[in-house]
């Protein structure tokens, strides 16, 4: 079946850039997503990228997709303490009854 | 904004009890999902539904059942709760085509 992998932990200093990486196995994925989960909360959709795109930028967030290597990354510029959270990568399709496959999540810790 | 509401944030139940987790969404989404989230394992799909009275097994359906009598409501049922079902349960919904899920805040269930 489909598999999505992420590293479990990343620590960065406030003001630096964070890069969270993800690899996936399903070559038929139509969309790839990044979700953020703050403590005690559900997941919040941050951004998504269509599989025929290489890059998407949204304010401090930059998503890079290497479809050949099935590698997705999320770059957060000027990381703030409020960015401390768990970040989940997910892949899926848009069809009926489509479901997403999630990675294990990367815990981002922002230090002063 | 789409709202997905889970009826309880915290629940404590005894082993062997029948447990109902309720989820309601208010944006007429066709698809609804139940996941459980455990540290180091990410999100695992229990059941999903793409229409009223329709249900499909996810990756870990054993010990669970679901009910979708109305489009806006998707219930997860633990037929006989066991301690290994202690977890965070997340409900989500999406439209078709699926441009990402909207999640509820989660229910943290403890079975003692």
Walk me through the structure.
The complex is a heterodimer of chains A (112) and B (112). Chain A is mainly beta and 112 residues long. Chain A has strands at 4-6, 9-13, 18-24, 31-37, 43-50, 55-58, 61-66, 71-76, 85-92, 101-102, 106-111. Helix content of chain A is 0%, strand content 55%. In chain A, the strands form two sheets. In chain A, strands 2, 4, 5, 9, 10 and 11 form a six-stranded mixed sheet that branches. A five-stranded antiparallel sheet of chain A has the order 1-3-8-7-6, with no helix packed on it. Chain A starts with a strand and ends with a strand. The model of chain A has no long low-confidence stretch (mean pLDDT 91). With 112 residues, chain B is an all-beta fold. Chain B contains no helices and twelve strands. The radius of gyration of chain B is 13 Å and the shape is globular. Chain B starts with a strand and ends with a strand. The A-B interface holds A 1, 8, 31, 33, 35, 40-45, 48, 88, 92-100, 102-105 and B 4, 30-31, 33, 35, 40-43, 45, 48, 50, 56, 58-59, 90, 92, 94, 96-106.
In brief:
The complex is a heterodimer of chains A (112) and B (112). Chain A is an all-beta fold.
Mean pLDDT reading of chain B: 93
Helicity level of chain A: under 10%
Number of strands of chain B: 12
| Class derived from helix and strand content of chain B | mainly beta
Number of helices of chain A: 0
Number of helices in the DSSP assignment of chain B: 0
Summing up helix and strand content along with how strands pair, one would put the structural category of chain A as mainly beta
Q: In this structure, how is the largest beta sheet of chain B organized? A: 7 strands, mixed
What order do the SSEs of chain A take from the amino end to the carboxyl end, as H and E?
EEEEEEEEEEE
Largest interface, with Cβ-Cβ < 8 Å? A-B, 26 and 29 residues
Q: Rounded to an integer, what's the Rg of chain A over CA atoms?
A: 14 Å
Main beta sheet strand tally, sense and closure of chain A: 6 strands, mixed
Q: Span between N and C termini of chain A?
A: 41 Å
Order of helices and strands of chain B: EEEEEEEEEEEE
Summed over residues and divided by their number, the pLDDT of chain A gives a mean of 91
Give the helix proportion of chain B (percent range): under 10%
> Quaternary state, please?
heterodimer
């Amino acid at each position: 079946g489909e598999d999505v992998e992420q590293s479990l932990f990343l620590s960065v200093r406030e003001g630096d850039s964070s890069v969270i990486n993800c690899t996936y196995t399903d070559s038929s994925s139509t969309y790839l997503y990044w979700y953020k989960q703050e403590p005690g909360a559900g997941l919040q959709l941050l951004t998504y990228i269509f599989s025929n795109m290489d890059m998407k930028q949204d304010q401090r967030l930059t998503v890079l997709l290497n479809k050949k290597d099935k590698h997705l990354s999320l770059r957060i510029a000027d990381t703030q303490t409020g960015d401390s959270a768990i970040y989940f990568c997910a892949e899926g399709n848009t069809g009926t009854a489509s479901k997403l496959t999630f990675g294990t999540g990367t815990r981002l810790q922002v230090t002063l | 904004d789409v709202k997905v509401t889970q009826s309880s944030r915290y629940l404590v139940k005894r082993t062997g009890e029948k447990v109902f987790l309720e989820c309601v969404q208010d944006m007429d989404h066709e698809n609804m999902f139940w996941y459980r989230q455990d540290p180091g394992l990410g999100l695992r799909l229990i059941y999903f539904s793409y229409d009223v009275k329709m249900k499909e097994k996810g990756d870990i359906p054993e010990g669970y059942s679901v009910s979708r009598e109305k489009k806006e409501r998707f219930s997860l049922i633990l037929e006989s709760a066991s301690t290994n079902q202690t977890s965070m349960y997340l409900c989500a919904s999406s439209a078709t085509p699926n441009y990402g899920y909207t999640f509820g805040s989660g229910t943290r269930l403890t079975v003692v």
